[in-house]
Specification:
Oligomer: heterodimer
Number of helices of chain B: 13
Mean pLDDT of chain B: 97
Largest interface: A-B, 46 and 41 residues
Helix content of chain B: 25-40%
Strand content of chain A: 5-15%
Shape of chain B: globular
Strand content of chain B: 15-25%
CATH superfamily of the largest domain in chain A: Aspartate/ornithine carbamoyltransferase
Strand order of the largest sheet of chain A: 7-6-5-8-9
CATH class of the largest domain in chain A: Alpha Beta
Structural class of chain B: alpha/beta
CATH architecture of the largest domain in chain B: Alpha-Beta Barrel
Distance between the termini of chain A: 44 Å
CATH architecture of the largest domain in chain A: 3-Layer(aba) Sandwich
Low-confidence stretches of chain A: 5-9, 336-342
Low-confidence stretches of chain B: none
Number of helices of chain A: 12
Chain lengths: 342, 433
């Protein structure tokens, strides 16, 4: 027998579905601030305005009886409550799955939990996870729109949008005027534990799209120099007072005690350099808007006088969360119910 | 049963060991290469004939770094499935790492892995643990392990951090002419890390492994090697320019330091992670462009001794997790030749003979694998035939490995393996009866 090409069997060809990581992501998802175009941002802000003013009974028809699942692997007050209120205001049925009261505790994977929620006919999942990137996996596993309510140290895009709404209100800029140049000349300082902050990342990715300059401020242990490479319009300034001088907006972040194990941080020293206190703000940023995504640790990164003072927008930020999240839910559920799978 | 003799006719025989690159006929009989002659010279009426015109006939490829997952994790891979994947990739010998369950730290396990009952399609050389249980505390019995067939010792995946125990390991192995292989990672600097340190890790909110975690341990090991007579340090899956420079400098000083690089470290950068794709998660991690370029440079200038895949199969449910939670590693046996041809030969103009040397002769020399990596009369009949021009698409679904965790799914390659012969038997593809 001659061993020619003909006698060598071609192996049977299988065509299974591609890797989960190659699956499409539903366009109604909101996972990274970098995914929003400027027209997207304008539409979301305009929708938020419309929904906020709308008659509550009419509003509750918008997503009447649509099913929305909140999947929370981390504790949360503000974000969870405001997503839940947003969904309920639009008439949706919501269910909360949290790590302390579900099969998550028994070791069920994120993919399987997502498939379970899908089988219960959830049409949109709001996810908070301690793992960076988890919303992509959930979106790819289910094909559903996924709204990122905070993933690890990575992103918190709805927070960045509600922060933007707060900033625009302060500057008296209507949503309809939003362009890629609308924040030209505006400087925002984000100060504190940038390394562990998903809020800082989402804001630093979103605000320069509208022309703002973002100054990141903090000690090297909490703000590595790589942070400036995240995108255009981002600079690092270690001197808080120098940063304050340049800024119309100041966003303070808490030190994330649960994530700083092993880092050498002297908290007294930190307070003396980076705390937003009444004297410092009066001397260096007397007209600036003071923001904080919460939770605040009074007496650490911000004092009570500043947090509760006339420049503070902290309560307004929380208030804006509901309108922004209503807009994101309408955006998620307005179009196609499910993306087609390969 | 001895296989029938095989006459491979009129192929372009490339044997880096002999510096041969010419049309030849090859006769394989009783598991050995028995004749190499100009085309038409060999007469063997009893032989099966393979018409190899247009094909390259090379020594079977050798992968000195694979994880076959047996004993203990047969759901990821078995010796049978792993070696079937290797044969499909053109390999006729693989060196199996000891991070099995239990750890291969005894002659019994070393022998068990080589038993015919495992159903290997090609030769398996075990690499045994350097310390008992790979715990980094007490040395294993190198002499007994070597006697059982181990070709090197390592605690791969659990680097030997203690200076005293590493020095002891180098000394004990040197007496037996065994290399000590180090997975160079100072794990004191990489806790909780899942990718390369730098701007991308920051942007993705993932903790990054600094380059110094690799280079620091390589430098430490080189320092220890100076104190050992006839010691041989082999650095596994090198991935940074800084560590490569340390190897380069040590070699200039006459130290016996060798190193390998994986196809993914010369083919990909950390950008492949995209939206947290765990098929781009491995250890060492994919690095930035400058380090990838340094790996190609090191391959071109000869500092790097071998291309080794670090084939690390994992089940789908393990990889379909959040990036931080997914295990490290990708499969690599079926894409190694294609990547080497594409990146090194086609893109960087490395002569094919040199590419093949990095997959045959040089890894054989590096781990002192007798009789491997050459086409010489009397050598074991380990041969691969591939078509250097045929284009093909790698599909993970068709992989012979039990696991499909590859970043190269649907990649188009040039250079398709047609026939892999291990010790005179056809290991790939399966034959019609």
């Amino acid at each position: 027998m001659a061993l020619t090409k003909a006698t060598v069997r071609k192996p049977p060809q299988k065509f299974s579905s591609p890797s989960i990581f190659q699956q499409p992501i539903h366009p109604g998802s909101a996972i990274s601030a970098s995914d929003f175009t400027v027209p997207d941002v304008r539409r979301i802000l305009e929708t938020a305005d419309v929904l906020e003013k709308e008659n509550p009974f009419r509003r509750s028809d918008r997503l009447a009886k649509r099913r929305i699942a909140l999947l929370f692997y981390e504790s949360s007050t503000r974000t969870r409550t405001s997503f839940e209120l947003a969904a309920k205001s639009l008439g949706a049925d919501t269910t909360l799955v949290s790590s302390l009261s579900s099969s998550i505790e028994k070791g069920e994977s994120l993919k399987d939990t997502g498939i379970t929620l899908q089988a219960l006919r959830a049409e949109c999942i709001i996810l908070r996870s301690p793992y960076s990137g988890a919303p992509y996996l959930l979106a790819q596993a289910t094909g559903l729109p996924v709204l990122n309510a905070g993933d690890g140290m990575a992103e918190h895009p709805s927070q960045a949008l509600l922060d933007l709404r707060t900033i625009l209100q302060f500057l008296k800029i209507p949503a309809s005027k939003v362009t890629e140049k609308i924040l030209h000349g505006i400087t925002l300082t984000i100060c504190g534990d940038i390394l562990h902050s998903r809020v800082a990342r989402s804001n630093a990715l979103l605000l320069p799209k509208l022309g703002a300059k973002v100054i990141l401020c903090g000690p090297p242990a909490l703000l590595p120099k790589e942070a400036a490479a995240m995108g255009p319009g981002i600079v690092i300034e270690r001197d808080f007072e120098a940063a304050l001088h340049q800024s119309q907006i100041v966003m303070m972040l808490r030190i994330q005690a649960e994530r700083i194990a092993g880092l050498e941080i002297n908290l007294d020293d930190y307070r003396s350099r980076y705390q937003a206190n009444a004297d410092r703000i009066a001397a260096h940023a007397p007209k600036a808007l003071i923001m904080h995504p919460g939770p605040i640790i009074r007496g650490m990164e911000i004092t009570a006088e500043v947090a509760d003072g006339p420049q503070s927008a902290i309560a307004q930020q929380v208030h804006n969360g509901v309108a922004i999240r209503m807009a994101l839910l309408v955006r998620a559920l307005a179009g196609a119910k499910k993306v087609s799978r390969k | 049963m001895t296989p029938k003799p095989i006459l491979i006719r009129d192929g372009r025989v490339i044997d880096p060991a002999a510096g041969l690159d010419a049309p030849r006929d090859l006769l394989l009989r009783d598991g050995q290469i028995t004749a190499i002659e100009n085309p038409g010279k060999i007469k063997a009426a009893d032989a099966d004939v393979v018409e190899a015109k247009g094909l390259i006939v090379a020594p079977g490829l050798i992968d000195i770094h694979v994880h076959l997952r047996e004993p203990g994790q047969g759901y990821k891979e078995t010796i049978a499935t792993g070696t079937a994947a290797a044969a499909a990739g053109g390999f006729t010998a693989v060196c199996a790492m000891p991070n099995t369950i239990p750890v291969n730290d005894t002659p019994e396990i070393t022998r068990w892995m080589q038993s015919p009952d495992r159903g290997a399609s090609i030769r398996v050389y075990p690499i045994a643990a350097a310390t008992r249980g790979s715990l980094g505390e007490a040395l294993t019995d190198d002499a007994a392990l070597k006697d059982a067939g181990a070709v090197a010792v390592t605690d791969d995946g659990r680097p030997i951090l203690g200076d005293a125990i590493m020095l002891e390991a180098l000394r004990a192995a040197a007496k037996l002419d065994l290399p000590v292989i180090q997975h160079a990672e100072d794990t004191r600097l990489t806790g909780g890390c899942s990718m390369n340190a730098g701007p991308l890790a920051f942007r993705l909110g993932l903790r990054g492994m600094p380059i110094e975690a690799e280079s620091g341990l390589v430098e430490r090991d080189i320092h220890l090697l100076r104190q050992v007579k006839n010691g041989h340090l082999h650095v596994a899956h090198l991935s940074t320019a800084k560590a490569l420079n340390a190897v380069r400098a040590a070699r200039k000083q006459g130290l016996h330091v060798t190193c390998e690089v994986t196809p993914h470290h010369f083919a990909l950068t950390e950008d492949r992670i995209g939206h947290y794709d765990t098929n781009a998660k491995m250890n060492p991690p994919l690095r930035a462009g400058a380090d990838r370029a340094a790996m190609i440079e090191g391959l071109l200038d000869g500092t790097i001794d071998a291309i080794a895949t670090d084939h690390a199969p994992h089940a789908a449910h393990e990889k379909e997790q959040e990036f931080d939670r997914a295990p490290n590693g990708i499969t690599g046996l079926e894409t190694a030749l294609g990547l080497a041809i594409q990146i090194l030969h086609l893109q960087h103009k490395m002569p094919l003979a040199k590419v093949l040397a990095l997959l045959t002769t040089r890894p054989a020399q590096t781990l002192n694998l007798k009789g491997q990596g050459s086409i010489a009369p009397g050598a074991p009949a380990n041969v691969v035939l591939f078509d250097p021009t045929e284009k093909w698409i790698f599909q993970a679904a068709n992989s012979r490995s039990k696991s499909k965790n590859t970043p190269f799914d649907n990649w188009e390659f040039q250079g398709r393996v047609r026939l892999t012969i291990s010790e005179g038997r056809i290991a790939y593809p399966p034959l019609i009866d």
